[in-house]
Amino acid sequence: MTARKQRLEPIKPPVQRRSKATVDEILAAAAQVFETHGYAAGTTNRIADRAGVSIGTLYQYFPSKEAIAVALLERHIIDTDRRLHEWVGHMVAERHGLRAALHDYVTGMLEMHSGRPRLQHILIEETPLPERVHKAVLEAEQTAAKTVAGLLRLYPEVRHTQLEQAGSLVVQTVESLTHRFAAHPDEQLMSRERFINELATMLEAYLSYSRPHKSRQPSPGSCPP
Amino acid sequence: MTARKQRLEPIKPPVQRRSKATVDEILAAAAQVFETHGYAAGTTNRIADRAGVSIGTLYQYFPSKEAIAVALLERHIIDTDRRLHEWVGHMVAERHGLRAALHDYVTGMLEMHSGRPRLQHILIEETPLPERVHKAVLEAEQTAAKTVAGLLRLYPEVRHTQLEQAGSLVVQTVESLTHRFAAHPDEQLMSRERFINELATMLEAYLSYSRPHKSRQPSPGSCPP
Amino acid sequence: MTARKQRLEPIKPPVQRRSKATVDEILAAAAQVFETHGYAAGTTNRIADRAGVSIGTLYQYFPSKEAIAVALLERHIIDTDRRLHEWVGHMVAERHGLRAALHDYVTGMLEMHSGRPRLQHILIEETPLPERVHKAVLEAEQTAAKTVAGLLRLYPEVRHTQLEQAGSLVVQTVESLTHRFAAHPDEQLMSRERFINELATMLEAYLSYSRPHKSRQPSPGSCPP
Amino acid sequence: MTARKQRLEPIKPPVQRRSKATVDEILAAAAQVFETHGYAAGTTNRIADRAGVSIGTLYQYFPSKEAIAVALLERHIIDTDRRLHEWVGHMVAERHGLRAALHDYVTGMLEMHSGRPRLQHILIEETPLPERVHKAVLEAEQTAAKTVAGLLRLYPEVRHTQLEQAGSLVVQTVESLTHRFAAHPDEQLMSRERFINELATMLEAYLSYSRPHKSRQPSPGSCPP
DNA sequence: TATGAATGAGTCTTCATTCAT
DNA sequence: CATGAATGAAGACTCATTCAT
After folding, report:
1. Opening angle at CA C107, ends C104 and C112, nearest 5
2. Are the beta carbons of D179 and C173 closer than 8 angstroms?
3. Contact flag, residue B57 CB and nucleic strand E, below 7 A
4. How far apart are CA B214 and CA B220, in angstroms?
5. A140, A211, B171, D130: which is deepest, by most CB within 10 A?
């Protein structure tokens, strides 16, 4: 394999390669460092060290510590978005049922958070972000809610009438709970498989629940003995 | 000299009083400051200022900045626990239905987070806590899950067979989502009232959902057209 | 002597003393350091070292390096102004002649610059000052020019008709040349005494020179052989 | 390859040419950058950028940032010297009077400083120069003073008996004041034309002033009323 | 010779913590 | 016990200079 590769690139690796690779190394290092120490205690020197470059090099690629966090967050938003759309495409193509769809969604989001469970929260909650980025995060979530709502419309067993609100609650629930499980999995209480199933069940039950129109009426006759 | 002083301020409160009050002032100030600036940027000097004491006095009562955060977190755990037990007691006494119970629970937790929505997250996620405290937080949550499970056992419409797991999921869901709503309420999409209802609905549907025993079978016949 | 002092201040030195003294020490150190290294290379750590305080203490009294430079410059402006007014008062009171007045003025300014000849220039030219301060410097010079002009009006031998312009030129000339002599005195060529005399002479000649009204006419008949 | 290239650019300048041109470009860029940002903030990268060469190339021609400043200063010294000699030659040839000569001198020096008024001061005052260069600057001034003294000797109306000292004062005065006016011209107070005339007048008055031999005697009878 | 990515010492500044009064 | 001036380690960031290509 190496031989073949060398025949294709006979003399030296493409000139511009280092730059891209360095950016990636720095971001990977930053992800580790922020994950481990949090934003404030994740120093640029530590990031540079872990990336195996000097502090000067780090600042040749990013103008500030904040810029690193923003780059990381933008990557995360794009990844999440891509994943969501892949999921929707898949679901529409395969014509799985609601239950399978939710199971898939939960599984995907749990996978996403399994790598660096704390990173996303650190970036969103702990980092002083420019307003622009803050908006982007909120918009990404709203878009996700709408996308999910659009998909839900295709399933006849979804009884919920306010699909946008339901989509939002679904997205937030999945987001929060998969994040929590990824960060502190209590495998003694619940295996990963089980967790996914329970969550999918909760969502399915919620979405297919046929509700009375005015709520807060105590469902009659159901009292503890 | 001491004698003279006592004659001028005769009703001077008992020895331990001042200390207790000062501790409270410091913690109240710390809560404000951490909420506003985050843990790292919440400086001890700012806390002392806001508490109306000198930095020296602050260090007379707390050995370090971390100790303040730990004390705050311990208070929070105790408060939450107390609130939970009040709720359980109330539910058992009043014999409301499951729906009302969940509604009450969600309302209570949302209230708890409404005061300083970010504080809890800051303390748990942003603060480098000693392992001991971290464990205490997790244990508190498990205890809460068990308590909730115990209550759920009293409602016949709860079909779920693994009550401890269900309790855990309920606690985590309520915790996560009320926190999110308190921190970033999107009142345009969903009013507070509506949010509480939706969440209670989701939990009610989940708990009263009668499930097949092996999951991940696509629920038959429910495909998008 | 010590004994007497102790009887007068029996227990401890006045509480607030340290602060004022520390500010002075820092400014004195800063003056030395800027004089020696220039503004950019005059580091705050060096200033703190020379002042015998820690860098933290320095920043307790001054919010930034710039603030130190500004404080130094403000002192200089005030000193110069005071000196100028003392001189004017003295001249009016003593009724010395123009020559003596100029001699006194030059002597005073030379003394002012003898301590730290480069400092003033460093502060004015080398330091990125806030606009406000820059204006203050220019205004101080204009005020000085007007004050000098006012004094010159009292001397009948002053033939110059545009006293404000003359005052400005006098101030600038004295300022520049005393600064230069203080910074690089070439005592071989000209003693300090001699320098003062020459400069006073030049100014006296200028002020009492009776001029034709349109200038740039080659004064007729005076060519090199 | 080289051959082909030469055919396309046949008149390619002789070997040393590029190097010379590059040096000039770098120095021109450095002059701009230092003038704009000062010495400390005038970074070598900015200089290279503005010169249109890489930072590596810059260091091929100059061993250090300081070397660039020194080269610039040496050029300035040579320019000034050349200008002075042109002026002297002109004055001797044209046989203008003293007044015209001084007017020409002042005009020439003001022109010299008008292009980059701050540069010279930056180089002399703000740059940590090797002692050798500092001496060169002082010597250049002394030489100028002697040259001026030599010229003054030709004018019979010059009464001053210590021509070398007078020359030195003239040179310093012109140098300082033209620099000041070029850097901060207060055209409201005095037009450029007027400034030149006033300064020439001051020098003429000084040089043609017939003085008593012992100074500091209050010129008799001239007191403010 | 030209290039420009990489280097790392050095800068300003902050803030948890101590200790003399 | 209360105070708050003093401390100094540590962090974000800059820039003169080097060296592999």
Report:
1. 125
2. no
3. no
4. 13
5. B171
Tell whether A225 is covered by a domain.
Answer: no
Kindly tell me whether chain A and chain B come into contact, counting contact as 3+ Cβ pairs under 8 Å. yes
- If asked whether residues C95 and C194 sit together in one domain, one would say yes
Q: Quick check: D100 and C168 CB within 8 A?
A: no
Report chain D residues whose CB lies below 8 A from the CB of C208.
205
pLDDT tens-digit map of B141-184:
999 999 999 999 999 989 888 899 999 999 999 999 999 999 99
Domain boundary among A31, A65, A99: A65
Instruction: Give me the half-sphere count of Cα atoms (radius 13 Å) on the Cβ side of residue A150.
Output: 13
Question: Is there a single domain that holds both residue B88 and residue B169?
Answer: yes
Residue C173 has what pLDDT? Answer: 97
Q: Do B190 and A205 touch (CB under 8 A)?
A: no
Domain residue limits at D135: 69-208
Average the pLDDT over B108-120 and give the result: 92
Closest residue to F14 (CA, C1′):
A56
Q: How many residue contacts between A and B have a Cβ separation below 8 Å?
A: 170
Residues 125-164 of C with CB under 7 A from strand F: none
Q: Report the distance separating Cα D203 and Cα B137, nearest Å.
A: 86
Give A20: exposed, middle or buried? Use CB within 10 Å, 0-12, 13-18, 19+. Answer: exposed
CATH code of the domain covering residue C60? 1.10.10.60
In a domain, residue D222? The reply is: no
Scanning every strand, the nucleotide with its C1' closest to D56's CA turns out to be E3
Confidence of residue C221 (pLDDT cuts 50, 70, 90): very low
Residue at minimum CA to C1' distance from nucleotide E19 = B56
Query: CB atoms < 10 A from the CB of C152, how many?
Result: 21
- A200 and B215 in contact by Cβ < 8 A? yes
CA of C190 to C1' of E21 (A): 57
In whole angstroms, how large is the CA radius of gyration of chain A? Answer: 22
Say whether both D103 and D32 belong to one domain: no
Q: What does the alpha-carbon distance between residue B39 and residue B69 come to, in Å, rounded to a whole number? A: 8
> Using CB atoms and an 8 Å cut-off, which of residues 50-89 of chain C contact chain D?
none
Q: Is D184 on the interface with C (CB under 8 A)?
A: yes
The CATH number of residue D175's host domain is 1.10.357.10
Q: How many CB atoms lie under 10 A from the CB of residue D2?
A: 6
Are A137 and A77 in contact by the 8 Å Cβ rule? The answer is: yes
- Inspect the interface and report whether the beta carbons of B224 and A92 lie closer than 8 Å: yes
User: CA B72 to CA B70: how far, in whole Å?
Assistant: 5
Q: What angle do helix axes C163-183 and C98-115 make, rounded to 10 degrees?
A: 40
Q: Find the CB nearest C211 among D100, D199, D201.
A: D201
Residue C51 belongs to a domain: yes
Chain B positions touching A95 (Cβ under 8 A) are 223-224
Is residue A132 located within the same domain as residue A187?
yes
Q: How far is the CA of A43 from the C1' of F13 (A)?
A: 12
Question: What is the domain count for chain A?
Answer: 2
The distance (Å) linking the CA of B60 with the C1' of F2 is 9
Contact call for D224 and C169, based on CB within 8 A: no
Reading chain D (225 residues) residue by residue, the pLDDT tens digits are 333 333 344 444 444 555 778 999 999 999 999 999 999 999 999 999 999 999 999 999 999 999 999 999 999 999 999 999 999 999 999 888 999 999 999 999 999 999 999 999 899 988 988 989 999 999 999 999 999 999 999 999 898 888 999 999 999 999 999 999 999 998 889 999 999 999 999 999 999 877 654 444 444 444 443
Q: Which structure tokens are listed for C65?
A: 């390096």
* Final residue belonging to a domain, choices A65, A89, A105: A65
Quick one: pLDDT at residue A209?
79
What is the chain A residue with the closest CA to B126? A38
The two tokens of residue B1 are 């000299």
Q: Is residue C22 part of a domain?
A: yes
Q: Do B165 and A125 touch (CB under 8 A)?
A: no
Q: Scanning every residue of chain C, which has its alpha carbon at the shortest distance from the alpha carbon of D211?
A: C201
